[in-house]
Amino acid sequence: MNFNVFNNWAVWGVIDDDDDEQKSSSKQEKEQQQQPKQIESEKNKETTIIVPDIEMKDEALQVTTKKEEDILKETNDKILEIVLGSDDEDSNKPIDWVAEMDKKENDIKEEIKEEMNMDKEIEQPKNPFIEPKCVNPEKTLHVSIIKRRSMPLIDYLCQLRNCVLKEMHVLFYNIDARREIIHHLQNFVHLRTSHLPTSRNFNVRCNDLTVQSACNIPAMGGYLGITVRGYYYVKHNIKLRHPYLPCVIEFGGGHHRSYYPLEVLCVSEKNKQMKGF
């Protein structure tokens, strides 16, 4: 037998346990030594990563704020150019604020003058039924109503007696003044109603004036139980504005009397002119 074969096998087939243990222990020691170094390196990496993140954020905020400020400045400049009406040629020139404000003021003044001139050119029609003004009593009063054809009785009496509407209440308590008014209404003018439609108005004959006012005189002989003021409100839906003035009396057949408040009557010409007295 060849024993050399077994010797070779013993050399190549047997493993020493001592060598393996030494190698494993050396590896563990190396790993233990490397672990704290790795931890420190990781910590350093984390710190180095966190610090630049904060700095980058601050820089980004500063950049964004600068951009926003630049945009706001540009928009403000554009708005000022639009408001002041600056041209493209003068956009690069500095703006003279005083001159621009003077131009605006002058434009506004010119517009106001034009509006005033337009108002003067347009003639507004005058109201013929305005409360009359006092006339010089030394001159005789001549009231011409040819152009207007008719006018309210109250306005006519104010012009005729040269007084204001408030004085008419006292005027009718004077007996002589009452007689003169009745005589004038009977002989110089025509009286006609004005509270009905134009086709239904009719002439009225002034026979007398009442002593009491329209708010106290019983209407229709008193059997209705209402005053002249209430009758015109119920029958004609007219609320009298001067219920404390007297009424014109027109005599009918028998004892019949019709009462007409002064504000529902108008005056028309009987001759060419109405003459005062």
UniProtKB/TrEMBL annotation:
InterPro entries: PAZ_dom_sf (IPR036085). CDD domains: PAZ_argonaute_like. It comes from the Eukaryota. Residues 22-32 have a biased composition (Basic and acidic residues). Residues 14-49 are annotated as: Disordered. This is Uncharacterized protein. It comes from Meloidogyne enterolobii (Root-knot nematode worm).
